[in-house]
Amino acid sequence: MRGHRPTKKKTGNVAGSLLLAHPALQDPNFRHAVILMSEHNDEGAMGVVLNRPEEKRLGALSGDFALGPLAQVPIYSGGPVQERQLLLIAWELQDDGFRMHFGIEPGRAEQCLQDGMQVRAFLGYSGWDAGHLENEMRHNTWVVSDIPDGLIDYPQDENLWRRVLGAKGDEWRLLAEEPDDTSLN
């Protein structure tokens, strides 16, 4: 892709990792996406895009949430699959990072908030059928990254991609900082 082939992590199970869209990926569903992968097995893979805030809160989405403890939970676009499906996810800080509670029920999300966890809502998710993600990985569509310390404290917006990709090394940083319109370079 545009001649750049920085060192990449070997393809394998990416559950518990981040998938970063390669800088040359133009698909509007995934351009500059940071995907937190929750599942990857022989049947396929699934995750949510972390850096597509909807600028809405759960209270505005549904009357069921309007007056409850989840009313102020931010909503993100999780990906192009089942975009009307609501997924609630909680992050529990631990000494060695965090633990993710994926696809929890609203009652459990309320308890997570009370326990001091961060809760986010996602409309839709990113999913791949068996072998599809592996094929994309062979074609360098994605850059696999470990989850950086403090990820849940980073602003979850379009700059997240630049920050995480740039931390992978100098060549990746240069690609991450490249303007969308290279004629402006």
Tell me what you see in this structure:
This protein has a single domain, classed as VC0467-like, CATH 3.40.1740.10. Helix content is 22%, strand content 34%. Strand 2 and strand 3 form a beta hairpin. The N terminus is likely disordered.
What are the key terms here?
185 residues; alpha+beta; VC0467-like; nine-stranded mixed sheet; 6 helices; 22% helix; disordered N terminus
Short recap of the structure:
By secondary structure, the protein is of the alpha+beta class. The chain has helices at 58-61, 63-66, 106-114, 132-138, 159-166, 170-177, and strands spanning 18-21, 34-41, 44-49, 53-57, 74-77, 81-94, 97-102, 118-129, 142-145. It has a single domain (18-184), classed as VC0467-like.
**Nearest-angstrom radius of gyration?**
17 Å
Quickly count the domains: 1
SSE succession: EEEEHHEEEHEHEHH
Q: What fraction, in percent, of the residue positions are helical?
A: 10-25%
Question: How are the SSEs ordered, and which strands pair?
Answer:
Elements: E1 18-21, E2 34-41, E3 44-49, E4 53-57, H1 58-61, H2 63-66, E5 74-77, E6 81-94, E7 97-102, H3 106-114, E8 118-129, H4 132-138, E9 142-145, H5 159-166, H6 170-177
Parallel strand pairs: 5-8
Antiparallel strand pairs: 1-2, 1-9, 2-3, 3-8, 4-5, 6-7, 6-8
Helix pairs in contact: 5-6
